[in-house]
Design brief:
Elements (H helix, E strand, L loop, with lengths): L2 H6 L3 E11 L5 E12 L3 E8 L3 E5 L3 E6 L4 E6 L7 H6 L6 H4 E5 L7 E8 L6 E9 L2 E9 L4 E11 L17 E4 L6
Parallel strand pairs: 6-12
Antiparallel strand pairs: 1-2, 1-11, 2-3, 3-4, 4-5, 5-6, 7-8, 8-9, 9-10, 10-11
């Protein structure tokens, strides 16, 4: 099965995510516990629970970045054209993949584990390589090797796919007393 086929099968997804970011010298920059939800085409919810709480959520029109320790929320216009590769992949936007990456299925796949390597075609890319693995068709990990030497690993656990998610989950309700930094082109 092709990478785009596996990603396009997902209309909704929820998972607990363990994130590990390692600096170029091998030092661990950050270990995080995250709760994520997505609802195609543009609902994306990324809640960092530990070590520092932060919530990034979009409904496909607006993006909210809530940081309670700073007592602020930043609101921006959302455009899928400027989203990160991982958000594109998770949301099933695969139409640019073949134009921007050489996608290679790892031939050492086991019966359960399928791994795809994405090699950027543009030498100016920030990435050296991206590996995406699936366990029996369910997303298992995304590994990003940046050209600056930093490496990021997301491991997806307790994954639920194609279940009911309320659209309201992807619209942030601003708590009282929180500073609002409105970076939209035309604020409401």
């Amino acid at each position: 099965m092709q990478l785009s086929d596996l990603l396009l099968q997902v209309n909704s997804m929820s998972a607990e995510v363990q994130q590990l970011i390692v600096e170029s010298d091998g030092a661990v920059l950050e270990e995080s516990s995250i709760q994520m939800h997505l609802l195609r085409p543009d609902g994306f919810f990324w809640e960092t629970l530990d070590p520092f709480y932060e919530l990034v959520v979009t409904d496909g029109t607006l993006l909210w970045n809530y940081q309670p320790d700073l007592e602020q929320v930043v609101i921006e216009d959302w455009s899928s054209n400027k989203s990160e590769l991982a958000a594109d992949l998770l949301s099933g936007r695969t139409e640019r993949l073949s134009a921007e990456y050489e996608v290679i299925r790892d031939e050492s796949d086991s019966a359960e584990i399928t791994v795809f390597k994405l090699l950027p075609l543009d030498e100016g890319s920030l990435y050296r390589q991206i590996d995406i693995s699936f366990n029996e068709g369910s997303l298992l990990t995304i590994y990003i090797d940046n050209k600056n030497g930093q490496k990021t690993l997301w491991q997806f656990n307790k994954t639920r796919v194609n279940h009911q998610l309320a659209p309201e989950l992807f619209r942030f309700q601003i708590p009282q007393g929180i500073d609002v930094i409105d970076n939209r082109a035309i604020p409401e």
